[in-house]
Amino acid sequence: MSQAAWAEGIARALLEEPLPRRWAHSQGVAAAARALAPVLGRHTNIVTAAAWLHDIGYAPAVHGCGDDLFREFKPAARGLSDALTYCDMTTGPQGQPLTAEQRFAEISDRYGPDHVVTRALARSAPELAASAARISRKLGGRALVPRPAQVPALMGAC
Ligand SMILES: [Fe+2]
Which residues are found with C-beta within 5 Å of the ion, ligand 1? Predict the structure, then answer.
């Protein structure tokens, strides 16, 4: 079993039922990672696995594990981290493709101006945008990654 398939199973078990919209988003982020294969090459599988797992911290079953995860795992190489950031920042809450600018606005609108997520996003937006821009340049300046056909079908499921 590939790392991506293993990770998909974990994400499905943790997100599909309790957090269906988060599950749809994770499916879109994983699809975006697979679509980055032309720039990721041999790293496609590990970035896709990370895409499946990137939001499992929202699952009720794993709340409070952040400190353990930070101790257990080293930060990824910048190119791989950029790729995951790009996929997350160009995928909406229902798995739909967005530009990074649309994604920032969507997050701010969804959480509201005073929420900790919005405040954290405001601080990290320049770094996130720079990560997304580095990947976009590797894609030849294309802002969006084509997604598999199943993503639009997911949009009505939430
Ligand atoms: Fe995400």
Answer: 55, 88
